[in-house]
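User: For a benchmark we're assembling, each entry needs the component sequences followed by a predicted structure for the full assembly. Here are entry 17's components. Please fill in the structure.
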Amino acid sequence: MKIQFLPSTQMLELAVSGNLLSTNAGRFRVEATEAMDVQSSGTAPWLGVQIDLTDAHMVDSAGLNAIISVIRKLKADGKRALIHVRDPHVYKVCMFTRLDSLAEIVQC
Amino acid sequence: MDDQIQNANSGISRVLVVDDEPVARQQLVFQLAQLNHQVTAVASSADAQDILTREGSEAFDCLITDCWMPGSTGLDLLLWLRQHDLTLASIVISQSTDKDLIKQSFRGGASDFLNKPVSAEELGVAMKRTIQSTHRRRDHAATGSEVKQAGLVQRRMNNLGLAGELPTSLKICYYPHHDAGGDSVAFFSLDETRILVVVADVSGHSLKSAFISAYFQGVLRGMVELGVSMTSILNRFNRFLTHEWLESNEDAGTGQNGDGVSVDHDHDSSPEITSLAVCSALIDLSAGSVSLLNSGFPIPNRVDGNGRPWPCGVVGGYPIGWFDPNPLSELTITADPSDYLVLWTDGLEDFAHQLGIGEWSLAFKILQVKEKRRTPDWLKGTPDDVLMVVIGLNKESKEITRFPVMREIYHRGQIDQIDELQETWRRNLAFAFPQLEVSRLFDILLCTREGVLNGLLHGCPLPSDRCELVMIFNSAVEELQIEITDSGPGHHFDPETCEGGEFRAQHRGLMLIRGLPDRVEQNSKGAAIQMVFLLSPKPEVLNL
Amino acid sequence: MPERHAQPIRNVENGVLALDYPVGLESAGGIPAQYVTLSRLFILHAPQSMRSLELAVAARCADAAARCAHSLQGAAAAIGGQRLASTAHRLTEAARLQLNRIEPNQIGPDWTEIDVARDQLHGELQELIELLRQTIQTLQT
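Assistant: Structure for entry 17:
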């Protein structure tokens, strides 16, 4: 996963390479949490997290759960959650599981 | 022809030499004459082609050609030869030591490459080897045409059984890889309500195999007419293969080329074992039963009216011809008029393995191809004969509307391999439904993944528990039905009635399964899930 | 003994024999009569190859020049004409053509070298033919 801070939007971007499935969801959650903690401990202000799923063709329930745990943490800190998707199937899954009620879903 | 035989016997071979340079050409003529060969020499590739056409390439035992010649080169001549006579072996002779040239020569079909100037000894060795190669190739070609003839006779005999009315529907899908030997189907109407179907797969593809296959068919027909039981027939044939046949092979010893080697196995002087994998099905329509006898054959399947496959038996026994006595695997099953019996030879299983897919998706595709009457290119690359027989247990049911596409069984230990399992499903679905829209494919894969993970995680607490995945295609409504069943106790809650945030968090997977398919059914507290997907665009329709 | 007579003056230059009779005889299967036949064929055809070579070099046609030189090389080697074979080989190399004609001519022929080789070949061919005539005469007496 590629992690970078976008100064223009003051968002922390987490770009997932490939699908987010049960086999890599755990690692995603751990790395995302660490990145958010590091960002919080710094002095630069940041508004939230942008999860880049444009490379994904599939997200399963474990992947969704991992995303939700990231979103929950952000909400607790008063931060924003944004999810970028490209594949229509992934978009459908996000909408279907009502992820749009917890984060902004943007179809690229 | 007589000259050739005489020459072969006396060791005099006829050589065609091609070299545009007169001195080198004459030198080669002298050298070859000293080695007792009858030499014809020409100065160009065109002259060589002319003489081979006029006198026939079979008049020569060896071709020696220079490489670099004006006009058509030696390599061009080799190319021409490959198109006209694959049996005439050749030597390329050149002043050049260029590695590429040497490689091209061999790739072009040359048996040997010699550097000028060639010593008499070197030339002698190369000539002997090359001429032997020509003779060997010609022997094989002769056998090949005889094998083709045997194959044609076999296929005609297979078709003879199709005459007459049967009280059941029968579909035979046969894609032979070899010219002869291989698979066969025989069926007999014993009376108005009983049919006997016998599918056999003989080992090897030589003339011997073709003989055994034909002999078995004859013995089978004769004995069935006399009312002998299949068990007795198979036991009797097993004794024949393990005793008389083996003994007659030991006595014969020498193969067709007379040097003690059988045509099929180079340098193997042990007597060839010929074996027969057989599966017989005695169908009793009035009793609603099928008695199966299996001898080394892949397990047959009963496909029920819902399109669900049920394997008939666990082990198939040994092929006949291996051991005496040979205990046969017997099983009697009950069957409905809406059921089908599906038998296939191991050629189908091998082919599926080669394609990286499961047997059912291959069987499904082969059934579709049957209607087209034209063998597609992908079916021409089979590693062995492919034979599948589908027997409807009701003459009235002409159309197969529900057929399995996949059947897999998993255990808890495979949870970590879920990505690989998913890839297997993707490959099978892509093969069975090449027109399937990508988004739909991912819906199916995701729901299957969720269902299988759910089944393995929650439904297989014990190592012995199993999660079964079955995919069935219903061509009448163009729906793919996916059934995931686990042997566990099911959820402690009822997924049908549970709602709320807590449930959602823990069972997002079940949410996906409920919403993405066109229809869902859950039974046994979630231990059995059935998801139905309408496939679009429309895949090919199955028809009997 | 033919061997005694097949060693004329100037036969060896830089260690390379103009005519190596024993080698030539061997390629003729050790039979002098056959060697005579091959030699006669050489005397008959080689000058024609030389003329074609000269024309090709004059026309700066590397492909044709190399072919003619290749022919001469083979013929000379067949009767033991080592020096001519060696020079002819040098000329084909200088033409820098791939005999299998797959690789295109990357570098281009070395015409200076080809001209030199051509001149040498001319002289060497005359010499070799003379030596062969002498050898034939010896063998037939």
